[in-house]
Write a structure and sequence with these properties.
The complex is a heterodimer of chains A (547) and B (331). Chain A has 547 residues and is mainly α. A 4-stranded parallel sheet of chain A has the order 2-1-3-4. In chain A, strands 5-6-7 form a 3-stranded parallel sheet. Chain A is globular and about 75 Å long. Chain B is mainly α. Chain B contains 13 helices and 2 strands, in the order ααααββααααααααα. The longest helix of chain B has 28 residues. The chains are: A mainly alpha (547), B mainly alpha (331). At the A-B interface, helix 1, helix 3, helix 4, helix 6 and helix 9 of A face helix 1, strand 1, strand 2, helix 8 and helix 9 of B.
Chain lengths: 547, 331
């Protein structure tokens, strides 16, 4: 395991000591603003590299670390932050409202996975927001200024910036707290603003900015250049042929295709995402879809979202730009979390109207996706659910009998889109063993993997394993009661981060993409006898007399 | 605990101000007429200004928190309240929040057990306390409308009678008086007893609770203890409504305390967290349709951003693309 994480036994002991309470210490008699800000191994991400910042034209490139006493903030940084705050308050009603209307009822306190895992009071969403509110109250509304000290306001200092950096990078913008807030206050919105502000003075995270720079240059977060991108998918095509005897035939940058398919680059390059990619390729071959993949718009995800709304727009613009150039009718999107928050809630607003595309219609079933009439982009789970509902797929769920599954709702798809039934319908159709986790840990109450919103860095492992603890705890329960060994997700960050989390907390549980299971279950025309799944694990569900 | 005694002290001082002012300063006119009128103006104007101040700010993105199944395929049942796609659904969702605190009803309490294991228990106390507190206050305020008319309007009469359902004391005891006292006690005690709540609470969280408590206690003392004669009060208000600012009759000093505290609350309202009463209607995670893929949402300040175009991309990678057999625009 990583050197940036305590041993499991140590962490267990820590939890054992404080149970059943969640706070890590007794804070009676203390005020939150007096608590020290401590950077240590495992609780901060490496800052953006100089060359990355220069490439992006971002301010204050320098060599520094969060553990430094002096962060070398640029001259006049206080003004930059104040002006930035003012400008954002002017542009976002949400931000202003969420700073103004909190009554500190505390309903959100024990809803945050980072609070549940760390017991750190400043990880209670209400206090996370107070980190900014306290400065906002000091600088803004007149009446509160008169009542200084009464209203919990404080000065903007370098220490406050450190605190912001620490705690706005212990929020994965998962929106779980906003489900419970009686005012509908969404901490994700506040974190997004805080990160924008911090970026203005060069306080940043390389694990976010490097992918942003890559995506700008090569079209995807991983920085895969066009020829390598093609090679990678072609090697998956070979693997599929070895396993199934079927030669699938994806095309790249092909003009005149009916559909442009865009998925996170993790599906092309990372384990276990590549197996999900193999599932897509098999599915498209099975139904004879007229689609193409772009090496230019080769990223579904959008780390711009974790940087600023301008950067989010810039990276997202490639999707429509490429769809227009290729002359496709509509766009089909792969399994991803924050990608779908961007596509669903931001894309058309930022880069639309997409009047050069058509309202999506499934060429196989004729179903009109009127829910995507403006954006013209359909989620693969909707697409596949529709195919299965119309009995267009030949599926043998027994081929997944070695996988005893549970389903992890990805935060953004759950709380930023509202897609709950489609993936479950697909999952039930392609496997025989599916058990839900506890009801307070799924659907709109789902827990983040602990590594979302660009916090999947190795050096951040301590906080990641703590933040993922509520999810792991829920998986543990179905592992114990139903022998679950397969955690199915529809998010590329989940596929990248949950394997580590499972290895740490729940050894024996593997992480799968939904369409990997679809790929396993598909009975392809002309296939050879299947004995192994896409990971080359033996399929156990194939009894006597099976073909 | 400075954050508790400071607002408590402030409330105490506020109680003394009208007492001294009326009893010893003979400032009845100030406390009965000028301050109430001024505070009413501040409340209405302040509330309006705050609302307008929020409303003029744009909503650049449609960001509802989706707590239920979205509208998608025909055969999948949409959760219209939690994932609204039409205006009528949104109205239902917002009213659910305003009238019944639906989101708060979801509240859970997480506890750590051996394993380690997290367990989530249902906890409705905060929801119940909040509902009792707000609804009682509403009924009490509406009940008071009887002072503003020469003949009591039917709804006030109805509320008054309903509230006096247990007509066992003289004067009849109002249920809401007991309920609001219980709710305030609960809300204060939980802020003190729960360590998490104690940390997040500010003086501004205790102050309105203490202030409202003082208002209720002063009001109840008048009714049940000193049994103040309400007729001069009633007359006073009616003359006021007639736009004739003349102090008529003798009014007990307790009434001045009660009235003054209400005025303070009215003045404090627009500048404080109490504005959540207006803000809740505007919350963009609750009052927007989850249909941004179906209907375009416009951002009035949508910035013009230069992105890396396909042409630039091809220029950078043309040779590599050609070698990989990818089609290119320019040879």
């Amino acid at each position: 395991m990583s050197k940036y994480v305590p041993k499991l036994s140590e962490l267990k002991q820590e939890f054992e000591k404080k149970k059943p309470a969640l706070l890590k210490e007794d804070y009676s008699g203390k005020e939150w603003w007096d608590l020290p800000v401590e950077f240590r191994d495992g609780n901060w991400c490496f800052p953006g590299k100089t060359e990355v910042l220069e490439d992006l034209g971002f301010p204050n490139p320098r060599k520094w670390a969060a553990t430094d006493a002096d962060w070398q903030l640029p001259d006049g940084w206080e003004k930059t932050i104040r002006d930035g705050l003012k400008s954002r308050l002017k542009r976002f009603r949400s931000f202003k409202l969420f700073l103004d209307t909190c009554v500190r009822c505390g309903a959100c306190a024990d809803k945050c996975h980072f609070f549940l895992g760390t017991g750190d009071p400043k990880n209670m969403p209400v206090l996370r927001a107070e980190l900014i509110r306290s400065v906002y109250r000091n600088d803004f509304p007149l009446a509160e200024k008169i009542l200084k000290g009464f209203s919990g306001s404080r000065k903007l200092t370098a220490e406050v910036i450190k605190e912001w950096h620490l705690y706005f990078n212990q929020c994965t913008e998962c929106r779980r707290c906003s489900v419970f807030c009686p005012m509908g206050i969404d901490t994700a919105e506040i974190t997004m603003m805080a990160r924008e502000l911090l970026n203005l003075i060069g306080v940043n995270n390389n694990w976010i900015l490097a992918p942003v720079s890559n995506c700008n240059r090569t079209g995807n977060h991983l920085g895969i250049e066009p020829h390598t991108f093609v090679q990678n998918i072609e090697s998956l095509v070979e693997d599929i042929e070895d396993l199934t005897g079927i030669k699938v035939n994806p095309t790249f940058n092909r003009k005149g295709a009916e559909i442009l398919f865009i998925t996170p680059s993790g599906d092309v390059f990372g384990d276990p995402g590549v197996y999900t990619m193999m599932g897509y390729l098999l599915l498209f071959h099975h139904i004879g879809l007229d689609y193409t993949i772009s090496t230019y718009a080769s990223e579904g995800g959008n780390f711009g979202m974790f940087t600023s709304n301008e950067m989010m727009k810039k990276l997202n613009a490639k999707m429509y730009h490429e769809a227009k150039r290729l002359g496709v009718k509509w766009i089909l999107g792969g399994e991803c979390g924050h990608m779908w928050r961007v596509v669903h809630q931001y894309m058309d607003t930022m880069n639309g109207p997409a009047d050069f595309l058509e309202e999506p219609v499934s060429p196989i079933t004729g179903t009109r996706f009127s829910n995507a009439a403006a954006t013209k982009m359909v989620h693969i789970a909707e697409f596949t659910a529709d195919l299965i509902h119309h009995k267009k797929l030949k599926l043998d769920p027994k081929r997944n009998d070695h996988l005893l599954t549970t389903f992890h709702d990805s935060c953004n798809v759950a709380r930023g889109m509202g897609m709950f039934e489609e993936p479950r319908y697909v999952l039930r159709s392609v496997c025989n063993s599916f058990h839900e986790m506890a009801e307070n840990t799924i659907r709109e109450q789902t827990f983040c993997c602990g590594s979302g919103s660009g916090l999947n860095a190795e050096e951040f492992m301590d906080i990641r394993m703590r933040g993922g603890f509520p999810r792991a705890s829920a998986v543990r329960q179905v592992q114990e009661t139903h022998k679950v060994n397969t955690l199915v997700t529809i998010c590329a960050i989940d596929r990248a981060s949950l394997p580590t989390l499972m290895k740490y907390w729940n050894p024996g549980v593997s992480v799968y993409g939904l369409h990997e299971l679809v790929g396993n279950a598909l009975v392809m025309k002309g296939e050879k006898k299947r004995t192994e799944d896409l990971r080359e694990s033996p399929m156990t569900g194939l009894g006597e007399g099976e073909e | 605990m400075k954050k508790v005694w400071l607002p408590l002290l402030m409330t105490g001082i506020l109680c003394l101000i009208p007492y001294v002012g009326v009893q010893y300063g003979g400032l009845g006119y100030l406390f009965a007429i000028i301050i109430p009128c001024a505070s009413l103006v501040i409340l209405i104007a302040g509330f309006a200004i705050r609302m307008v101040n929020w409303l003029i700010r744009p909503v650049p993105f449609r960001i509802p928190t989706t707590c239920g199944q979205e509208k998608s395929l025909d055969w999948i049942r949409q959760d219209k309240l939690e994932s609204p796609s039409r205006l009528s659904h949104v109205v239902g969702r917002v009213l659910g929040e305003v009238l019944f605190f639906r989101s708060l009803f979801r509240n859970t309490k997480a506890e750590l057990y051996a394993g380690p294991k997290l367990v989530y228990g249902s906890t409705k106390w905060l929801w119940l306390g909040g509902m009792v507190f707000h609804w009682s206050l509403l009924v009490i305020v509406l009940r008071h409308s009887k002072f503003f008319f020469s003949t009591v309007p039917p709804f006030a009469d109805f509320l008054d009678n309903a509230d006096r359902f247990f007509d066992i004391t003289l004067p009849a005891f109002y249920m809401t008086d007991a309920l609001v006292l219980a709710a305030i006690s609960f809300l204060v005690v939980r802020r003190l007893r729960d360590l998490k709540l104690r940390l997040i609470s500010l003086p501004t969280d205790f102050f309105p609770l203490f202030l409202i408590l003082a208002i209720v206690l002063a009001g109840m003392s008048m009714r049940y203890v000193t049994k103040i004669n309400v007729l001069p009060v009633h007359d006073q208000i009616l003359t006021l409504m007639d736009h004739s600012f003349i102090l008529s009759g003798e009014i007990g000093v307790l009434f001045y305390v009660h009235l003054f505290l209400v005025c303070v609350l009215a003045i404090y309202f627009p500048f404080s967290k109490l504005m959540h009463a207006g803000g809740i209607f505007l919350s963009p995670t609750r009052n927007l349709c989850n249909n941004s893929r179906e209907k375009r949402h416009s951002n009035p300040w949508n910035p013009d951003i230069k992105f890396k175009s396909y042409t630039e991309y091809e220029d950078a990678f043309r040779d590599k693309m050609k070698k990989a057999g990818l089609p290119v625009e320019k040879e």
